[in-house]
Specification:
Layout lengths: L9 E4 L6 E4 L3 H5 L21 E8 L2 E5 L10 E7 L20 E3 L4 E5 L13 H19 L6 E8 L11 E7 L4 H17 L3 H9 L5 E4 L3 E4 L10 E5 L11 H22 L4 E6 L13 E6 L6 H6 L8 H22 L1
Antiparallel strand pairs: 1-2, 1-6, 3-4, 3-5, 5-7, 7-9, 8-9, 8-13, 10-11, 11-12, 12-14, 13-14
Amino acid sequence: MTFKRITLGELRKDYVMDKFVIYPSNLDEIKKDNSSNTICPYCPGNENSTPSAIVSLVIKSGILQRLSDSEGNIVKDWSVRVFNSNTPIIVQSNSTLYTDKPLYSEPAYGYHQILVATPNHSDSFSKISVEQWCNVLLVLQDRIRWLYSQKKVTYVSVYINNGNKCGTKIDHPHIDIVTFSEVPPFIESKALLSHRYVNENGNCPSCIAISTELDGPRQILATDNFIAFCPWASIYPYEFAIYPKKHSTTLTKISQKEIFDLAMILRSTLGGMSQVLNNPSFNLIFQLSPEKKNSRQFHWHIEIYPHINDLTGLEKGFGVFVNSILPETAALKLGAAARKEIAKIVGVE
């Protein structure tokens, strides 16, 4: 049996289930192990190792400036930098190559951008300052808005792969932003179930969960506008989520004050997790509602998954998860460490 060479990114759907898999056009590049490369392409001075910056956030005399690279002029002294990925999992193409079921496929069309969260390679998401987190979130808001204004962009996904056990080969703190021409099945399912719950019960299920968890045994930390807690049915050990207290469907609609609050709770909880679990690899996912031509919305939030255990056949084959750490126990430990981080932040900053 022979396999066709994939020259363009391809998105294939399962025979039966509503799920899809992306086969990037640059498989050989993505497979490369960069761990032995001593030059970090995301560090200042190595800007020529990446595509030109779409946005470079520069702070001059306390004023934020959004600049971009131009021919022969690379922006220096940046605080946050965004560019198109060197190894995108999807690309903009004009391919019209489609195949029908049962072997359904379509072009994997979209944007894949990288947001470098700090110029300092030795920093981590658990150590960058609250002010820097605010800068990251402001740029992220800007990118999400711009991407949703583009054709063929139906959903913008935002996620962090931190550590070599969680899917990254570059240690420098960065965020992946990937768009899709249709809403990913997982997000579509969450939006549908939330929409159905609201119709049947008259209230948002996440709002009910927040009121239940507030000041409860699974709460880790709360600010004026956000709450962090370990979910009642946590799938993974020390998994936790961050929700806005008031009903909101997307990150792009939150205010400057809410951005500061979010930066504070992110820095504190990630710092606490780092202390409790000794700097684990982790995934952080922004679960945002679709913003384009979609009436089904859900309460946006952030999910954090430390890498503690590998999945077994039970999880992979049946979707039944075994968690050896009760969320109440995880919240107790994470909460104590997060409050210490808050104390340090207030004392230093």
